[in-house]
Q: What sequence folds into this?
């Protein structure tokens, strides 16, 4: 369960405050797989970051009792000057992981980036980066995965592996997902939240949410 | 395919320790890993200063230096000054340099400040000891008069520099232009912090232009601890203490209200 209490989030720009959320009180129910819908620039990624505890509301509180993953996005969460291995080691230490070399091996194998693992992230292609990001997140067990458009990574066989691994994780975990691919959302989620006009609207059924969104 | 997981519930203090340690290792790697000469560069900067001023003042001059030769005198000035300068700059840029790592929710700006402060302190202790050993080997007298007093001054200086660095980081965040002003303001610091002179050598009517500088006080006080017969009539431990404490207070106050700004991209 994630509870938002009177959450207001805006960005201060040259043209004044741009609101993403305005005085939103909302509870995301437990045990559900949630699709987040909304037009471009509505702040879907910002919402994921707020839920993941790496961005903060200007007013209000967000509370949760779950182990929530970092947002799995296409190109973020790595320090470009560090190698893939150093980044993975860093995350292991931050999350208090004991068997670091074990996890490194797992991530290296899963991501299939081979010896690039020992090179700085800034030398990676965007595909390699997202493969590494996905592999790293698969090395940890979270109760809730925040997924930002990362499901379509790599070639067919890699995508199959990702789907299998994700399915395994989801026996004990739920997802909150942002995607522009409605097919993915229909398949993966069982409810929807529409982010529109700085408010959140809940739909018990994904299909209803998608219809409302596309209307 | 499998992944090993341990959901040990960590207390906030343990999380703090884990994250700071992770950042500390990351800083060491970027500082000393990329090019193996990292340690050499850490030593080269103070050595260059000692050499240059020794040439200017003469290697065996003792006048006005409290009974030590020029190299030791310069050493006792440049080491605390470099500690100040490096710690200030490192803390000022701590968040920017680790921006990508705030993607993990346990990583907070304070961890980057602490990790960098520990690393800079370590570099200071290491280079100080190395240069001292070098002086001893060359044949200078390197007895430290009151090592505990030196450590106390160094501690106050660390608090001062890290706090000012944090304040600088917030200034740059609020007004990006101020980064340029800060770097201009830092330029003359080397010449007004008493590295190659003591306050007593300056005519009293000019003291007013220098005596506000807490780093000058730290350098003079460090010398009184280090050099047996060094006397300072003007440096004040109380002033250094008040400056350190005040800047720490301001830094923590700013941090408490505005730390989330550092995380947001």
A:
């Amino acid at each position: 369960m994630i509870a938002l209490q009177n959450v207001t989030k805006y960005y201060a720009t040259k043209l004044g405050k741009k609101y993403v959320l305005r005085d939103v009180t909302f509870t995301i129910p437990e045990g559900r797989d949630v699709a987040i819908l909304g037009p471009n620039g509505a702040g879907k990624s910002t919402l994921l970051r707020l839920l993941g505890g790496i961005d903060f509301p200007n007013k209000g509180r967000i509370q949760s009792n779950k182990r929530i993953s970092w947002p799995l996005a296409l190109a973020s969460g790595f320090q470009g000057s560090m190698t893939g291995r150093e980044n993975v080691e860093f995350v292991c230490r931050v999350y208090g992981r004991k068997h670091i070399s074990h996890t490194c091996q797992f991530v290296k194998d899963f991501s299939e980036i081979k010896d690039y693992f020992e090179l700085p992230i800034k030398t990676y292609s965007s595909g390699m980066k997202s493969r590494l990001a996905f592999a790293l997140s698969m090395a940890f067990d979270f109760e809730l995965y925040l997924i930002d458009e990362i499901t379509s990574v790599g070639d067919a066989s890699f995508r199959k592996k990702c789907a299998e691994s994700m399915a395994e994780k989801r026996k004990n975990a739920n997802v909150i997902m942002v995607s522009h691919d409605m097919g993915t959302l229909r398949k993966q989620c069982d409810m929807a939240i529409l982010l529109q006009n700085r408010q959140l609207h809940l739909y018990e059924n994904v299909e209803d949410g998608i219809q409302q969104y596309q209307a | 395919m499998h992944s090993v997981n341990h959901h040990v519930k960590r207390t906030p203090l343990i999380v703090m320790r884990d994250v700071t340690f992770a950042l500390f290792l990351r800083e060491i790697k970027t500082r000393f890993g990329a090019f193996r000469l990292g340690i050499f560069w850490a030593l080269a900067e103070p050595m260059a200063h000692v050499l240059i001023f020794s040439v200017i003042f003469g290697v065996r001059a003792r006048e006005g230096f409290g009974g030590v030769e020029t190299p030791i005198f310069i050493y006792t000035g440049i080491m605390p000054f470099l500690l100040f300068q490096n710690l200030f700059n490192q803390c000022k840029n701590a968040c920017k340099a680790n921006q990508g790592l705030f993607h993990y929710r346990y990583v907070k700006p304070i961890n980057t400040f602490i990790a960098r402060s520990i690393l800079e302190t370590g570099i200071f202790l290491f280079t100080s000891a190395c240069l001292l050993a070098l002086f001893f080997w060359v044949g200078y007298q390197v007895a430290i008069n009151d090592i505990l007093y030196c450590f106390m001054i160094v501690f106050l200086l660390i608090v001062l520099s890290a706090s000012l660095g944090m304040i600088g980081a917030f200034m740059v965040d609020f007004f990006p232009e101020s980064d340029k002003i800060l770097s201009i303001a830092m330029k003359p610091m080397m010449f007004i912090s008493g590295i190659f002179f003591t306050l007593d050598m300056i005519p009293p009517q000019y003291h007013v232009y220098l005596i506000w500088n807490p780093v000058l006080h730290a350098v003079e006080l460090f010398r009184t601890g280090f050099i047996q017969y060094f006397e300072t009539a003007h440096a004040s431990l109380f002033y250094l203490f008040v400056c350190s404490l005040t800047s720490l207070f301001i830094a923590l106050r700013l941090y408490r209200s505005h730390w989330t700004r550092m995380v947001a991209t």
Observations:
- Confidence is low (pLDDT under 50) at residues 1-5 of chain B.
